[in-house]
Write a structure and sequence with these properties.
Layout: E1 15-19, H1 23-32, E2 37-43, H2 48-54, E3 60-62, H3 66-74, E4 83-85, H4 94-99, E5 104-108, H5 120-126, E6 131-138, E7 148-155, H6 162-185, H7 220-229, E8 236-240, E9 243-253, E10 262-265, E11 268-272, E12 277-285, E13 291-292, H8 293-304
Parallel strand pairs: 1-2, 1-4, 2-3, 4-5
Antiparallel strand pairs: 5-6, 6-7, 8-9, 9-12, 10-11, 11-12, 12-13
Amino acid sequence: MKKMSKTTKTSGKVSFVFFGSGPVAAKSLALLTESFDIEAVVTKPTTLHEMQSISSDVPVHAVATKAELDDLIAAKPFKSHLGVLIDFGIIVSQGVIDYFRLGIVNSHFSLLPELRGADPITFAILSGQQETGVSLMLLVEAMDEGPLLAQDTYTITEDETTETLTEALIYRSYLLLKDKLPLYTTGKLSPYPQRTETLTPTYSRKLTKEDGILDFNKPAADLEREVRAFAGWPKSRTTLAGKDVVITKTHTLEKQGEPGKVVVENKSILIYCGQGTLVIERLKPAGKKEMTVEAFLAGHKNTLS
């Protein structure tokens, strides 16, 4: 365990440098400013102004690459002995980690070693997990393999989307950091290894736009999870009545037919899948607002039946 050092300002709050650049980072930073002394924020140029608006009285540094981050730290600009990283998107070198006597704590939105990698929230829904959570991990150069400080478990609901799950985990992350960082910085909380001897590590990846194309050869249950997981991006897309549509809400039926065949039944749109049937509840035609399937059928029923 790293040697404990003074990491608080005169306010008595834990002081750290925050590393983050995505929307999750921005929302997390807004919460963290309530309970911690943020000495500085390190972000990407694309999110510089957003981070400045959240922490108007805190210096914000913009770096675009690992090398630029190394150069920033080489100038020794910070006094804090701790860093906190959430949704940063830039590889952090060992030299940057070692600059902070207590290291850099990464709040990762899964129960490590499950779903290491770039998009654990989406893949928790895609894989049909019933539980996920937040892991506080000491950063190492290897991807998400560092020792843990704490974890908090969250139960995934049946209608959970990536957007709702993200909001829930951002708040869980804040509460966990608020509770555990003071213990860690005063030597009352020790890191412990990830349970790789009993849990096989799994991995997420960055999504592409092509991931959003619905493949009706898959089981309907898989596609229903895709619709919820891809609600923010890349969205679940297909063609109905010759129009490009985004499917926004569905459920499944234990009914079988030729995969990809579209059936209108009882004011509902059914699409047979490799296993089971996907029932469309809401959708968004290209260039129009989201609507119920009944509203869509009012103008397109004859072209679907």
